[in-house]
Specification:
The protein is built from 14 helices and no strands. The chain is mainly alpha-helical and about 350 residues long. One of its GO terms (biological process) is transmembrane transport.
Length: about 350
């Protein structure tokens, strides 16, 4: 088992290298051909043409594109992602300060999606063949048709504005001092024993994580229901019934174990999209994550941040897929024999 997982990790690492090179080259080239002038945008409004040309030369935009990419790639391999044109800070520090917030939000949203998705899928399977099945099918399709930004607005207006039950801006309420250790607010508050900060941070994350999680859960429900229906057509289900096993045990101990594998694959794919799709939700809730950083970077044509954030999202998706494949091997040991 561990040998197979280690081989998978090595294989994914070797595969990740050309993928990252291709993504970095595409990002670099596409951003350079856009009709924007980062050099001009980094200068004051009263800057002269000569000053702008000098800045363009200093930033290396006067060199051939392939040479610009080569210089940037060498710096990247040495850990230098670049310096923000707008914020005048290293891109690595900006990403390092916002990435933990997005990771925490994405993980909590995935927990919400998993709970709703698995519970809803089991309920859809339970009501199969009854009148409630058509109603639940309609509700799941309705939920599936609503994107996360609409859920964000609905939840904000209902629970944030109308009932005023939960905060809906920022990451912490005024008056709380943020502990700085790992960069992950929830983890740092637990390490320092500051439970008040922990619960306040959770309150700020409830609405955006619900918006993201609810939007993802219907597809999990439907895939799990379909997988369970397929599993119940197999012979081992009939054999389990002949042995006198209860329907509950057959579902939990046998059918669900096999039906969860396609759902797990979908969860991995969705988590990758979720990590990169927090932008609008972070913007709506003024959540200080990478989504807000990307919006500022796009607004100011801050190419170094866009390139760094794009590569970060790519690395995150590769890591998520590797983790999902490893879980696949753990849950289905038969794959280790291949």
């Amino acid at each position: 088992m561990f040998v197979t997982i280690a081989k998978l990790l090595v294989k994914r690492l070797l595969t990740a290298i050309p993928i990252l090179l291709i993504v970095s080259a595409l990002l670099f080239c596409i951003l350079r051909v856009l009709p924007v002038d980062p050099a001009a945008m980094s200068m004051p409004p009263n800057a002269t043409v000569e000053e702008i040309e000098a800045m363009r030369k200093e930033m290396g935009f006067d060199r051939p594109l392939i040479e610009q990419y080569g210089i940037w790639l060498v710096k990247l391999l040495h850990g230098d992602i670049g310096r923000s044109i707008h914020f005048r800070q290293d891109v690595s520090s900006l990403i390092g300060s916002t990435l933990p917030a997005t990771i925490e939000l994405a993980v909590l949203a995935m927990v919400v999606a998993t709970v709703f998705g698995l519970a809803g899928g089991l309920f859809l399977f339970y009501v199969r063949g009854t009148r409630a099945e058509a109603v639940m099918d309609f509700l799941s399709i309705l939920l599936l048709s609503l994107p996360e930004f609409l859920w964000s607005l609905f939840l904000l207006l209902i629970f944030g504005v109308f009932f005023n039950l939960l905060p809906f801006t920022g990451r912490l309420s005024p008056g709380f001092e943020r502990p700085m250790m790992t960069g992950f607010l929830l983890l740092d508050s637990l390490i320092t024993g500051n439970i008040a900060v922990f619960w306040d941070a959770i309150k700020h994350m409830i609405l955006p994580s619900l918006a993201l999680g609810i939007a993802l859960s219907p597809s999990l429900m439907r895939v799990l229901r379909s997988s369970l229906l397929d599993a119940y057509q197999d012979d081992y289900i009939q054999q389990a019934r002949l042995r006198g096993l209860s329907e509950k045990r057959i579902l939990i101990r046998h059918a669900l174990k096999n039906a969860i594998l396609p759902t797990l694959s979908l969860m991995g794919v969705q988590f990758g999209f979720l990590f990169g799709g927090t932008l609008l939700v972070e913007l709506i809730y003024s959540y200080p994550g990478m989504g807000n950083l990307m919006v500022d970077a796009i607004r100011n044509a801050d190419l170094p941040i866009i390139q760094g954030a794009g590569l970060t999202y790519c690395v995150a998706v590769l890591v998520i897929n590797t983790v999902v494949d490893s879980l696949y091997l753990i849950l289905n040991p038969k794959l280790t024999a291949r």
